[in-house]
Amino acid sequence: MAKKTAQSEPTHTEHDCEICGSSSAVEAPFARFYTADQPLHICTGCGFVYIRRRRSAAEIARNWSEVLYKGHYTTAIPAVKCRHVYVADFINARIGLKGARVVDIGAGQGQFLGIMRDSYQADCFGIEPSGENCRILADKGFEHFHGTIEDYAATGRTGFADIVTVVWTLENCSSCTSMLRQARALLKPGGHLVVATGSRILVPFKKPLFLYLNETPADTNSFRFSANSLRRVLHVCGFATAHINRYIDTDYLCVIARNEQPAGEAPEGDNFMEVHDFFERWHRDTLHYLGNKDL
């Protein structure tokens, strides 16, 4: 009988802030209460909220493909379809989609691609690490690549996209700056990057904290963006912000940035004490709703 070998545990690496490079960070208060004792950190240099200990891009992508997508996460629910429609309409209203070559990083099952193709006549291509999702993309008639953005970068194909979209994906990777720079490489000069994520940090509370933080591996949601931190990281990665949605009273934060060297200094970050206070207030507010955790 062949001897069984124990499967090695994934390696976690400690990271400094990807936006300002600071190694100084404090824990977001009460985060461990919701995350099965996994810490969430706030950079003291620029207020960026992130997970310090993370696995590799391949390990995180595998977790999403083999566990989360096969568990509780699906794009078929109305709430996710609504946000896809919102972002597609925002892109079309600001820069136009008809005839544009669009690359979606983390294409999932192609719902967002389908909206852009069928409603706005965009020419769509998806990059997706899940083999099962890629089969769905093929059934829907989408040209696609099976792998991570890091895998696609290794093919050496660059400079062909009019628009690259990163929709509820930038927060789920191992390195947000690496993903943004690889996205930039896909764009034509003057092309546009679209990043959409939840509008949760330093805005009115839109959900209780137990519906924002959970007990899944913390690095499957490695980054938590405010409007300031998102614009700042885009600037650091060589993008000039062109449009931003009205994020203050919607669930969504959406920034469209041009692939051109940004002028001037990087946008200011957030005061880490204000972010720290924000999480304290959010926890106190959430305590009123803990009896309704099944909602």
Topology (elements, then pairings):
Blueprint: E1 13-14, E2 25-27, H1 31-34, E3 41-43, E4 49-50, E5 53-54, H2 57-68, H3 78-94, E6 101-105, H4 111-120, E7 123-128, H5 131-139, E8 143-146, H6 149-153, E9 161-167, H7 176-186, E10 187-198, E11 223-224, H8 227-236, E12 240-244, E13 252-258, H9 272-286
Parallel strand pairs: 6-7, 6-9, 7-8, 9-10
Antiparallel strand pairs: 1-5, 2-3, 3-4, 4-11, 10-13, 12-13
What does this entry look like structurally?
About 30% of the residues lie in helices and about 20% in strands. It is of the alpha/beta class and about 300 residues long. The chain has one domain: Vaccinia Virus protein VP39 (Rossmann fold). The chain has a seven-stranded mixed sheet, sandwiched between helices. Strands 2-3-4-11 form a four-stranded antiparallel sheet, with helices on one face. Helix 5 links the parallel strand 7 and strand 8 (about 145). Helix 3 packs across helix 4 (about 110-120). The radius of gyration is 19 Å and the shape is globular. Residues about 1-5 have low confidence and may be disordered.
Summary, kept brief:
The chain is an alpha/beta fold and 295 residues long. 32% of the residues lie in helices and 20% in strands. The chain starts with 12 loop residues before the first strand and ends in a 9-residue tail after the last helix.
Keywords:
295 residues; four-stranded antiparallel beta sheet; alpha/beta; 13 strands; 20% strand; seven-stranded mixed beta sheet; Rossmann fold; 32% helix; 9 helices
